[in-house]
Design goal:
Layout: H1 2-29, H2 36-54, H3 58-79, H4 90-111, E1 127-129, E2 135-137, H5 138-160, H6 162-172, H7 174-179, H8 184-209, H9 217-231, H10 236-256, H11 261-275
Helix pairs in contact: 1-5, 1-8, 1-9, 1-10, 2-3, 2-4, 2-8, 2-9, 3-8, 5-6, 5-8, 6-8, 9-10, 9-11, 10-11
Length: 286
């Protein structure tokens, strides 16, 4: 059972990376990005295209994609999403749903529906022995470390930096924040840009650990959304904890039957909504 729990935590760290960008955008703008999963897939295919065009290794392609997703997120927010932000969440949901459809169809037209993966340079074949009978893959361990560092970094940014204070100010009261000299639209753009950097990193790592296809976006969005809800909206460590719980639940389910994994994760999500609808850690904490 120890190996089941470890595998569950490693799987949960993947979901945590998926969830952080979604949690940041919701925490700052109260915006649920329906295209979140498709943006993850877009990042993976962007890295694949960069590697095919240049012959670069996965690390160089990852740096390029993460760097490009920062201005992409900023421009998308300033040009499109800022126009639909309001107390009514429906316009943003409709726009991001449309963006999801556009991304899926563009990827299908360019890359077809064939699943693809990112060449990790043999990293996905390296295993680190823990005991005589138990080993951990180097790539899952890397994803685990990146998810912890990203979560800690976001939490530190929100509580100890000027940009984090700006994020919290416009989140609490954008009108009052603008009276103090903050440009809410610029702050929202920076939040989306950082969220898209996280999305890019998560998408590239997902492409390294398994295959991706243009139709994977909705399922990745579902895992991200469940992790954020279970952990508590607006909490980065809550998102990480919720993702870890989902990963362990799925791993336990697959231990009993390979078809029960995803179902066990959904069951945890539904139980959370029934017992603790505010999530495990509903507020961002120091």
């Amino acid at each position: 059972m120890t190996d089941v729990l470890i595998q569950g935590l490693l799987l949960g760290s993947v979901y945590a990376l998926f969830a952080l960008g979604l949690a940041l955008m919701y925490g700052v703008m109260r915006l649920t990005n329906i295209a979140h999963g498709d943006c993850l897939v877009l990042a993976a295919f962007a890295a694949i295209a960069a590697m095919l065009a240049s012959g670069w290794p996965a690390l160089a392609a990852a740096v390029l994609v993460v760097g490009l997703f920062f201005p992409l997120g900023y421009v998308l927010q300033r040009a499109l999403l800022n126009r639909v932000l309001s107390r009514d969440p429906l316009p943003a949901l409709v726009v991001t749903f449309g963006l999801s459809i556009v991304i899926q169809n563009v990827l299908l037209a360019v890359f077809t529906s064939d699943p693809r993966s990112i060449d990790a340079g043999g990293l996905n074949l390296v295993a680190l022995p823990l005991t005589q009978d138990l080993s951990i893959g180097a790539l899952p361990l890397l994803v685990f470390a990146v998810s912890l560092l990203a979560t800690a970094g976001l939490q530190a940014m929100m509580t100890r930096t000027a940009i984090g204070r700006a994020f919290r100010a416009v989140s609490d009261d954008p009108e009052a924040a603008q009276l103090t000299g903050l440009d809410a639209r610029h702050v929202y753009g920076l939040a989306t840009a950082i969220a898209f950097m996280l999305i890019a990193a998560a998408g590239v790592l997902q492409g390294m650990r398994t295959t991706v296809s243009p139709a994977d976006g909705p399922s990745l969005l579902l895992f991200s959304f469940e992790a954020v809800i279970v952990g508590g909206m607006g909490s980065f460590w809550g998102a990480w904890l919720g993702a870890a719980l989902l990963g362990v639940a799925q791993s336990v389910g697959m231990y009993f039957d390979p078809g029960w994994g995803t179902w066990f994760g959904h069951l945890i999500f539904l139980l959370t909504l029934l017992v603790r609808p505010q999530g495990l850690l509903p507020q961002t904490r120091d």
